[in-house]
Amino acid sequence: MDSINHVKKKFNLDIDFEWVDTxxxxxxxxxxxxxxxxxxxxxxxxxxxxTGVLDAIKFARVHDVPHIGTCAGFQHTIxxxxxxxxxxxxxxxxxxxxxxxxxxxxKLSCSLAGKSMNIEIVENSLTYNCYQSDKTExxxxxxxxxxxxxxxxxxxxxxxxSGIDQDGEVRIVEHSSNRFFVSTLFxxxxxxxxxxxHPLIERxxxxxxx
Length: 210
Prior knowledge:
Layout: H1 2-11, H2 22-28, H3 30-33, E1 39-41, H4 50-62, E2 67-70, H5 72-84, E3 92-93, E4 103-107, E5 116-121, H6 126-131, E6 135-139, E7 144-146, E8 159-165, E9 170-175, E10 181-184, H7 199-208
Helix pairs in contact: 1-7, 2-4, 4-5
């Protein structure tokens, strides 16, 4: 991705990255995941293998490997948390099963695709530390988000709801016990340039180098 290359150039880093198919992720599991210093759960859902992407996110969470999720990556971060931390085995994403009775991710009543919105950042959070600010404006390209029927279940000690938009909706989450595990419903990579890297992507890449 261009945004990773922007950070590489800024800090003169000698690192590589590659795309991994979710079917391969499901098939090879931890033996594959252990090769990497970080994971980016990127947009492009529905994924070929829901199990594959959730297994990768779980690996990063459990083993404290740097992880950033954007757009669909945010949605699947929520789903992984619901299934494996809250132990709600049938938690589902509407894009995969719109008849499920336990949708944690559902279609937004109003699409955010192509919109730019303001976000208030919770002080003392990792996200705040990255931005060094309590506000940001970010771009969206998504049609799915957290189902508000389950928002109270996400008020958990292991999950920080660190970014709230102008409509009071959660747009950034992070894991409190991980050194870098942040997911955003927006796509920060669109705001990254060679002259101005995005603070979340910059911190993610630097954490991977450790």
